[in-house]
Amino acid sequence: MEWMRRELHHRDLGLTDDQVVDMYRVMLTARKMDDRMFALNRQGRVPFVVGSSGHEAIQVASIFALDRDVDWILPYYRDMGAALAWGFEPLDIFLATFAKRDDPMSGGRQLPNHWSDVDRRVFTQSSTIGTQYPHAVGIAQALATDGREGVVFVSGGEGSTSEGDWHEAMNCAGIHQLPVIFVIENNQYAISVPSHDEVAGCIADRAKGYAMPGWLIDGNDPLEVYRTMQMAVGRARAGEGPSLIEAETYRYYAHTSDDDDRLYRSREEVDEWRRNDPVVTMRQYIIEERLMTAAEELAMTEQVEDMLARAVVEAEAAPESDDPYSNVYVRVIEPGPAVTSLEEPVEGEEVNLITAVNRSLHEVMDRFPDTLVFGEDVGGRKGGVFKATERLSERFGEDRCFNTPLAEASIIGSAVGMAAAGKRPLPEIQFADYIHPAFDQIVSEVARVAYRSNGKWNCPMVIRTPFGGGIHGALYHSQSVEAFYAHVPGLKVVVPSTPADVKGLLFSAVEDPDPVMFLEPKKLYRLAKGPYPAGEHVVPLGRAAIRRLGSDLTILTYGAMAHFAGEAVGLLEERGIDAELIDLRSLKPLDWPTIEASVQKTSRVLIVHEDNEFVGYGAELAAQIADKAFEWLDAPIRRYALPDLPAFPYANGLEEMVYPNPEGIVEHAVELAKY
Ligand SMILES: Cc1ncc(C[n+]2csc(CCOP(=O)(O)OP(=O)(O)O)c2C)c(N)n1
């Protein structure tokens, strides 16, 4: 391997002598910190560390090209140099390494090096490879929409470019020509997988396909890094769009303290790369250029080492982390008093559910100027496959209601970034059946932002999606997904079943600081009609509605089944059975007091939903009732739900055989009442 002589001079790039010395100081600090961290790990004082040694040039010089007052950064776990250059204090980094209470990034909840700083626009990172890229795009989209200043820097290893999130984010950044700089630190391995088993062709070349320039550079040369970043930053600030930089580099430590790199690379190879050690060559440059004398450099090294030694002592002595509970939600909704009567009837024009969705979106966008509505087919004149977003683009502009590429992970991932940058996103997933590619973004990112940043960041958004069967949508247009998401701490889940509840719950969801899954039973889009209240109408999250008062048994349900159960209770009445019907509306948080009061009154419970019975949402209801209200029961808790089938089959008659219906509800209720 031939290492090229450096041909660049810092003054030609507009860097002052002091800036170059400063750059070197940060690179040196990163290297020394790494050495300390691995030493602490070997001494058994910290359980896990991730190294950055070898990457200092690409990390530190990149940041020097940015504006720390307006730009945003999303550095990945290996970016110690970037973090230090951005202004993270070594003490804070050591507090995170020791996972102490005062770790400002996560309060000891995350592994070390998961950067986060709300004041300095460093968005909280997870450990999931690649998920940060759509976040960066969403932040840039928010900045562009508002005409705000700022460039977004996002980095990752070459392995991360194999993830779909990376491609989706590159595509989206290219489509909108957003001010994002993708920096790929290609250190030749993704854990043990060499880059030739990871990447087909050249990463930088992929930029062309996403309508942006791509540069392949020596990532160990800080001046080359700085020069390339200057070009990328210049483009972004001038509104010329995104850039991709692939920086060839190498890591000197193993992947993490848990990895044994002798199993996949030779000492000779490591030594060869050490001949182009960015810290060593930068030191040579500084001395050759007479920016410092050797004695001054030695004094600087000692000073850095002293400072780090003190930071380690202080961090190790700091109080332990002791709070695993807080910040799952930004707003914890405490259970209210039990609902024991019917709601006051609402007044308004009679509309169907889809009209209510459309009208509510119009009202919400009108009321909250920071809301954005987007998804597949939602923009333009079409206004969604169900017309839920009809005329929103026309009324509020294509900046606030727009089409996205067919890429669910990036629809949700970019919403995370928009929320981080102060917007209230309302992403739409066209059918719940197609939400699965976004599962990772919803579960690992959206739901955890508040918890993992110890409450420093939140992720307010309303994810709307039509779900459920009964419309001959077959296996891929009739799935129910509520159980997947109700299972996830950090999410709230609602299912409206009347036009009035659509409006009331949507306003509550948009005003809530936490992410809300807003599941629309599409069977009811045209079937369910009811008054749409004009003016202020809010249905609080966590409050069920009693649709019929009764004393013989309680039917617990939601969504389309609330509608069918409404028919069933009429039929039951004819048979002399007085059923109470509870429409849960809010699956998480759950209105337990209302359920409990009803069970105490009726002593019999039938749970109805169209999702699978096995580990369905009803299983949780049944478990809670058995657990907390067992003494009140006079009969086993019954469930009426989809058997263990993958959604509803298409052919005439097949769906009807398994889709829960009013007659089936009656049958189950009669049997239960007789028990
Ligand atoms: C989605 C996902 N899959 C797998 C992992 C486990 N994992 C952690 S780091 C890593 C390799 C990443 O390599 P690369 O992106 O090249 O970055 P590097 O660590 O080399 O800097 C893997 C597979 C993960 N964290 N996330």
Any overview of this molecule?
With 675 residues, the chain is an alpha/beta fold. The chain has 25 helices and 21 strands. The strands form six sheets. A five-stranded parallel beta sheet has the order 1-2-3-7-6, with helices on both faces. Strands 16-18-17-20-21 form a five-stranded mixed beta sheet, with helices on both faces. A four-stranded mixed beta sheet has the order 12-14-13-19. Helix 21 links the parallel strand 17 and strand 18 (579-583). Helix 1 (17-42) packs across helix 3 (80-86). It starts with 16 loop residues before the first helix and ends with a helix. The mean pLDDT is 97. Residues 78, 127-129, 156-160, 185, 187, 189-191, 255 line the site of thiamine diphosphate.
Bound molecule types:
thiamine diphosphate
**Which word captures the global form?**
elongated
Give the beta-strand count: 21
Q: Determine the number of helices (DSSP H or I, runs of at least 4 residues).
A: 25
- The amount of beta strand, in percent, is 5-15%
Low-confidence stretches: none
End-to-end Cα distance, whole Å, is 82 Å
Query: What does the oligomeric state look like here?
Result: single chain
Q: Helical proportion?
A: 25-40%
